[in-house]
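Lab notebook, bench 4. We co-purified these components, and the gel suggests they stay together. Before we commit to crystallization screens, I want a quick structural picture of the whole thing.
Request: model the full complex, all chains together.
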Amino acid sequence: MSSETPSPASRDDASETAVQIDGVTKSFAGTVALEPVWLKIRRGEFLTLLGPSGCGKTTLLNLVAGFLEADNGELFIDRDLVTQVPPHQREIGVVFQNYALFPHMSVAQNVAYGLRTRRVAKAEAERRVRETLELVKLSDFADRRPRQLSGGQQQRVALARALVIRPRVLLLDEPFSALDRNLRTAMQVELKEIQSRLGLTTVFVTHDQSEALSMSDRIAVMSRGRIRQIGTPSEIYDHPQNQFVSTFVGDANLFAATLVSREGGAARITVGKTPFEVQTFQDALPAPGPVSLFVRPEQCRLTEAGQPATVTARVALSVYQGSHAEVHLDCAEAEEGRVMLRVPASAAPKPGTDVGIELPRTGPAIYAREEEGEPA
Amino acid sequence: MKKSLLDHVLDWTGRIVLTAIVGFVLLPFVVVAIASLNESAILSFPPDSLSLRWYANAFEYRDFAEGLVNSLKIAAFGALIALVAGAGFAYVLDRYDFALKGLLNGVLMSPLIIPNFTIGLGLLILSAAASLPRTMWLVVAVHVIIVLPFVVRSVYVSLKNFERGYENAAESLGATPGRVLLTITLPLLMPGLISGGLFAAILSFNEFTASLFVVNQRTQTLPVAMYNYVREYADPTLAAVSVIYVVVVAVTLLAVHKLFRLEKVLNVE
Ligand SMILES: Nc1ncnc2c1ncn2[C@@H]1O[C@H](COP(=O)(O)OP(=O)(O)OP(=O)(O)O)[C@@H](O)[C@H]1O
Ligand SMILES: [Mg+2]
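Here is the predicted assembly.
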C-alpha cells in the first residue's frame, strides 16, 4: 500500500487539509465503483483525479459534492464531518461536464441563483454577479440565455455560477471535454489563473494526461476504483510507482526482464541474454524473478546493431513529427513487442534497419509483472 | 444534388400517400361541414341548396349551450385534477423505489384496458349504492379516471428525459429540495405538464360513452346533448354543432400555440 498513501506526513497538517476522504467506498447494485479511498486535499491546492473511463472519478467527485451517499467511510470538509450532510448545505461549487446551465434563466440569473438561495441582499448580489461575470470575461452577455452562447462561453458561465458563492471547494468534472483543442487550452490557462488568484481548493477530473500534467499541483491517478499513486506532476511522470501509472501517464517502454539480485534500488537484471546493472529511482524492488523494466522513450538511445550492452531491435516505422521523429521498433524483449524512441528528424533510420537500444544505467524502474488486465 | 429516378418515384409516391392519408383523415369533417350548410331539414349529402339556418338553430337550442358550458367546466376541472394527481404519481414513480410500484403503475394504466362504459357503469352503480347526488363532480370523477393514464404517461416521459444535472447543480448552489422543485424541476417540466393537461382536457371534452351513464338533464355534456338531440331530430343542426365543436377545439389549440408554442408542448420540436 505504500505507493497509495500520500507523500510526506509533515505536509498533511490538519489545518491545511480542506477535504479529507477516509476509507470511502461505493458500489452500484453489486458493482464496486470505489474501493476504500483515502485522500487528503490541501487548502488552495489544484488536485486532479486522472484515470481511464469507468475508474470511479465521477463517483468520487459526486461523493464529495453529496450527490451520492458513501457506503462506508467518512468525509470531512474544513474539518467538518459532512458524510451525512445534503449537498445544499456543503457549500461546494460544481462545474458539470455538460455545464447544466438552467435553460430558463439568463446568464445573470444563472450566476445569481446561488446567491438567491443564500438570501444575499439584492445590491450585494448584483455586485457579486457583475464582478464574477467580469472575472470570466462575460460582462456583455449577462442578459443572454445559455443556448445563445458558444460552448466556451457556456463553460465560463458554469464556472462563474460555481465561483460566485465563494465555495469551500470547487469541483470540476471533465469541464473542457466538449471544447475543441484551442479553446480547451485557452480555458485551461484561464481556469488555472482564476484558481490560483483566488487560492481556491480545486478538484479537477479528467482522463486527459496532458491536461492533468499541465494544470495540477498534485495528481491522483486512479484505476478500477482505486488511487494508484498521488503526487506532483513530476513525481507522477518521473517516478511512477507502478506499471499502471507508468503506462497511463506519458509514453512508456516496458521490457520483459529477469531480476537476478537487488540491493535497495539497485539491481542486476537480464534483458534477453544481456545482463545490466541499473540504479532505479525506487526505494524497494520486487522479489527476484520475472519483472518489467520501465524506461521512458527519452531515456533510451539508438545505437548501431551489435554493440555490447544493448538490446537488439529492428526499425518498423519512423514517424515524422516536425521537431523530431518517432521511431517504432520491433523488439523481442519488449512486453508488447514494440518500443518507441525519439530521435532528431534528420537521424531517423530507415524501416528494416537493425539497431541497438542503449538502456539508461540510472532512472528506470522495475515493477512486478502485472497479470493481464489486473493491476497489482 | 442530383436525384435518381428512384428518388423521384419515392418522392412522388410519398406525396400521394401523404395527401391520401390527410384527405382520408379529414374526409368525415369535410362531409359533415358541407352537410351542415344544407337548406332542407334532412341530413343528406350533397346539399341541394345552402343556408346557415342550422347554425342559428344550434345556438338557440338551450341543451347545446348548457352542454357546452358543462363540457368546458368538466374538462377544465377534470384536466386540472388529473394533471395535479397524475404529475404527483409520475414523480413518485420516477423518483422513488417502493414495494408494489409495478402494481401501482398497473392500476394507474388500467383505464387503458377497461372500456369507458365500464368505468361509467361502475361509478353509476357506486353512486346509486352510496346515494350520491348526480352532480357535475360525479362526471368530473369519471373523466379524471379516464384521462389520468394519459397524464401520468406524458409527465413520466418528460421526467425520464429530464436532465438530473440541473437539479444537482441547483442543490450544490444551496437550494433546498423544495426550492429545487419549484425553481428548476417544475419550470423545466412545464411543456410536458401543459401538454398533459391539454390532452386531458381534449379527451374529456370529447368523452361520450362513460358520461352517458352518469349525467342527468342538468349536468349533461355537449356530446350527450348531441346524442339526445339526434335521437329526436334528424336535421343538419348536429352537423352545424360538429363544426362549432371542431372550431372550439382548434381555437383552444391555437391559443396554446400562441402562448406556449405548440411544437414545444407536443414535444415535436
Ligand atoms: N448510477 C450508477 N449505476 C450503476 N453503475 C454506476 C453508476 N454510476 C457509475 N457506475 C459505475 O461505476 C463505475 C465508475 O463510474 P464513474 O462514472 O465514476 O467513472 P468515471 O471515472 O467518471 O468514468 P468516465 O471517465 O467515463 O466519466 C463504472 O463502472 C460505472 O459503470
Ligand atoms: Mg465521469
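Chain B touches chain A at residues 163, 165-166, 168-177, 179, 183-184, 187-188 (CB under 8 Å). Worth comparing against the SEC data before the next meeting. Chain B has twelve helices and no strands.
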